């Protein structure tokens, strides 16, 4: 068993024990209304809301990339020769040995 699984099981057991020990009724005020609710139910509701909020906050965000193509782009031979990533004539900061190895 992994460490994470053991921690989850221990926490689940502890939460269950705490819930079972708190079954008496308490007064809960919701806006202007007073409601008598079991501590067990109230703690369960608060725990579920906390879990849901934690899942929403901790989920990874999706990155959206917006691509717009306003005009058609075409390259001729002269543009290709002048392009940095294609031109072997431009200085890349590499030594001659590295340039020879790459080419």
Question: Can you summarize this structure?
Answer:
With 103 residues, this protein is mainly alpha-helical. It has four helices and two strands.
Structural account:
- A two-stranded antiparallel ribbon has the order 1-2.
- The chain has a domain at 3-58.
- Strand 1 and strand 2 (33-38) form a beta hairpin.
- The chain has 103 residues and is mainly alpha-helical.
- The chain is built from 4 helices and 2 strands; from the N terminus they run αββααα.
- It is elongated, with a radius of gyration of 32 Å.
- 50% of the residues lie in helices and 12% in strands.
Features:
103 residues; elongated; 50% helix; mainly alpha; two-stranded antiparallel sheet; 12% strand
